[in-house]
Each structure stands twice: as C-alpha cells, then as structure tokens.
Amino acid sequence: MTKVRTRFAPSPTGYVHVGGIRTALYAYLLAKQARGQFVLRLEDTDKKREVEGSDAHIIKSLHTLGIDYDEGPDIGGAYAPYRQSERLEHYIEWGKKLVKKGRAYADPYTPEEIRAFRSEAEQNKKAFLYRHHRPENPPEWDGTRPLRFKSEPKACAWHDAVMGDLHAGEEVIDDFVLIKSDGYPTYNFAHIIDDLEMEISHVIRGQEFIASTPNYLNLYEALEIDRPVLATMPHILNETGNKKLGKRDGAKDVLDYFRDGFIEEAMLNFIASMGWNDGTEQELFSKEELVSKFSLERVGRSGARFDEKRLIWMNGQWIKRLELSDLLKRAETFWGEAGQKASEAERKAVLTVVQDRLKTLTDLPNLTEFFFTEPTPDWKMVDDSKQLAKVLYKNRLDLLRSAAEKLVQVSAEDWNEETLQNTLNELLTDTNTKPPVLFGLIRLALTWAPFSPGLPETMRLLGKEITLSRLQSATKSLGEERAG
C-alpha cells in the first residue's frame, strides 16, 4: 500500500499507561513520516468493563503528549463514526456475508454446555477447541445467539514488521465468536472490519495479540481481503526487567507524570526510546526528529525495561532546553506557597538560577521557596550532614561570623557572581577550611533547604542585604540552639 493510515484503538476501560501510549506514538510517527493519517478509534463494545470518562481521558492523554490524530470520535472524519458501539450495523452486515458464504453460524449451545465441553477437554488433558463441537445443523442466526466464525484449520506463516517471520500450526485455529448475543461484536471481529473499512494500512499493537493472529489470518482469508502490515510491540518490562510492567510496578496513569512535573518533550522522547533507537548514540530527540528518524525496522524484538531514573534524567535535560518564558508558563502550578504569591518578574529571576538544576517541575518548591520568604533555621540539617556534623559549635560560629565580615566588604555595585565567587575563595584561604564545609554551612544558613542553586548565584539573587541578614540570623539562632 502506498497510502499510510495507522490507528490507535484503545478500549475505554480505564486510564492509559505508557504501554498504550507507546503503541499510539509509534503509529503516529509512522503515519506522519509518510504524510499519512493517524486515526483514533474507540473500541467500546465490552460494556461490562467500560469505565465512565475513560474516552475523555484517552483524548486528553493524547493531546497532552502532542499525539494529535487526524480523525477521531470527537472530530469526525471521512470514515466516521469512530466508536465501535456506533458501528453495530457494519458488523451485522459483514456477519451476514460470512453466514451466506458458509463461514459463520449461530452458536446453539448454552454457556453451561460450553463449560462442560471445556471441562471434558481438561479431564482428557487436551486443549479445548470449540470447533471439535461444531454443530452439524446450526439454527438460523437471528441475532439472539452468538455468531461464530467457521474456521478452516491449517498451518499459517506470516511476516511481522517487528518480530520477523512467524508461523503457527492448525492446532491454534478455532471457531471464535464474531458477534455476541447482545448484538455487540468481539474485538477479534470488529477491529478487522473497522481496519478494512477505514483503510488502515499498518496495525501496530502489543505482544499479547500474537497468539490470536493465526485466527485473524483465517478470518482475513474468509473475508477475501488483503491484510494490513502487522507490527507487534514487545512488552515494556518493570524496573528489574524480569516481568511485564504492571500497575504495581509503575504503570500508572500517563497524566500522572505531568502532575509529577514531567514535560511533554521528555515523555515523548522516553516512551519512543523504550524499544526503539536510530542506531546512533543520540539520546534526546524532539518530536520532529522522531518523525524523521523513526522506523519499525529499528524497533527491538525483546522487552524494553522501564527505567525511571533515565526518565528523570531525560526530563532534566529537556527542562534545560526550554526558553525561559516557556518554562515560566509550564511551572505556573508548581511553585510553593510563597512562590505562588511572587510577581512574574521575581519568578523569572529565580528560574534563571534554578533551571539547570530542575529534574522535574515538582522540585521547584525545595529549590526556590527560600528566595521568596525567610526560611526557618534547622540545625538538624547541619548535624545530619557528613561534612558539617564534624564541625564543632565554636568553629561553626566563627565561620558564620567570618563570612559576614568578609561579605560586608563587597559593595552593592560589585555584588555579582564573579566577585562573590572570588570573595568566597579568599574566605577559604582566610579560614583554612575545605569548600564542602565552608560553602555548605553558608548555603544552609542562607536557604535551610536540602537543595539549592550554586552559592554565588543564590547570594547574587538574594542580594547583599538579605544575605548578610540571614547570616546574622543563623549566627543568632546557633547561639540560641547552644543555650537551649
């Protein structure tokens, strides 16, 4: 096929996690690279499992990640409708065609009878196959009974664009249900009809569908239609790489990552790289680069490990690349209480010194709150520091006083990072102290925060008056701490 049309077809049964998003992303990249169309279709025929609001959640997840579709349930398109529950007449029509061809029949058995057949197979230590109980003279299909496919068991072989050449024996082919007694089609039937009618050229889906593919191939043949290109995605594995990623292992709602301070560029980059690379050492890819470089041939066949540390690193790298005005906008809801009350100019000034240190946007309060409000001294932080815990009370007091006496000599006009760094270096010599001790003590006295920007940057932004004031407050507090 020359026209590339791909689709993401989730069931609205809950939130979308990274596995589903990866399938959507790869389908999107393939379509965009070929200047084709990417379609969102909701496979909502399992009404018992459907979760209210899931359809809106799926749509929001895709848009938040910038995976924008060309056709879908909310925007329509040439092949509408894009909800399977609104396409029931299509499946009935194709079901009747199969009945007429002798390739489908009404299932006359009750659920209890089918369970008995299955139990008998288990007792005989054989795999249960419905076709072994295929009725000789099934009743006419009137929609009140399940409609089953009449398979033609035989060995099959096919090529998967990711997994390569695959094959299966006739023992996996069976008479599966096409349309249930409630009038809704099964996934096994509906997705093939929808892909056909929507002219889908490439079907990208998870590894769990490989076992069903022989039955799909049998159905394609019965329908006398050309099958699309099939591409199977390997599982995403948990952090240790020993099993498929599940909810207990971090397969959380993809929107939770944005609430946790991750940004679109990093999420797209990270998800794309779980199982794919372009064959180079490059690790950071913009969406445009992903569209340009993506190929199914470079998707690995083995499972890809979910490495949260790599995601955090990647997020920090992408935050560094943001324009300051863009970062200011994205950080709007992540400031601490005092930061929320600060002016835009104040926030922007603070971002200039913390941007390179942000791993996620949720780091903002710890890295910035002390710029906007007077922090409360906490000498336990000093005692918990391996370097500072060894410094005696008198020495702590002397270092703080020496720092204040040295810094007061720097004029307001010279209060810049270069001058401050030189002054701090002179102070090291004057006090014969190691940098982790002197700088660590001053940093805590100014911020009382577990993390902060570089000391000269922090002092420059705080200004001379506040810097000296906080050193004096820390000195006073230390004396009170000792007295207490």
Quickly list its features.
mainly alpha, three-stranded antiparallel sheet, 8% strand, 20 helices, two-stranded parallel ribbon, Rossmann fold, Glutamyl-tRNA Synthetase, domain 3, 484 residues, 4 domains
Please summarize the sheet with the most strands: 3 strands, antiparallel
Tell me the CATH topology of the largest domain.
Answer: Rossmann fold
For the record, give the distance between the C-alpha atoms at the N and C termini, rounded to a whole number: 81 Å
Output the number of helix runs.
20
What's the shape? elongated
Average pLDDT: 95
- The total of beta strands comes to 11
Tally of individual domains: 4
- Low-confidence segments: none
Structural class comes to: mainly alpha
Going by CATH, the architecture of the largest domain would be: 3-Layer(aba) Sandwich
The CATH homology group name of the largest domain: HUPs
Helicity level:
40-55%
Q: Strand portion, in percent?
A: 5-15%
Rg (CA only): 32 Å
CATH C-level of the largest domain: Alpha Beta
Q: Give the strand order, joined by hyphens, for the main sheet.
A: 3-4-7
Molecular structure report:
By secondary structure, the chain is mainly α. It folds into 4 domains: 1-73 and 234-321, 3-Layer(aba) Sandwich (Rossmann fold), CATH 3.40.50; 98-179, Alpha-Beta Complex (Glutamyl-tRNA Synthetase, domain 3), CATH 3.90.800.10; 323-369; 374-483, Arc Repressor Mutant, subunit A, CATH 1.10.10.350. The chain is 45% helix and 8% strand. It contains 20 helices and 11 strands. The chain has helices spanning 18-33, 54-64, 88-100, 111-123, 187-197, 213-223, 254-259, 264-273, 287-293, 308-321, 324-330, 337-341, 344-354, 364-372, 380-383, 393-407, 417-431, 435-447, 455-462, 464-483, and strands at residues 5-8, 37-40, 104-106, 147-149, 156-160, 164-168, 177-179, 202-206, 229-233, 236-237, 304-305. The strands form 5 sheets. It has a 3-stranded antiparallel sheet with strand order 3-4-7. A two-stranded parallel ribbon has the order 1-2. Helix 11 (324-330) packs across helix 13 (344-354), helix 13 (344-354) packs across helix 14 and helix 16 (393-407) runs antiparallel to helix 20 (464-483).
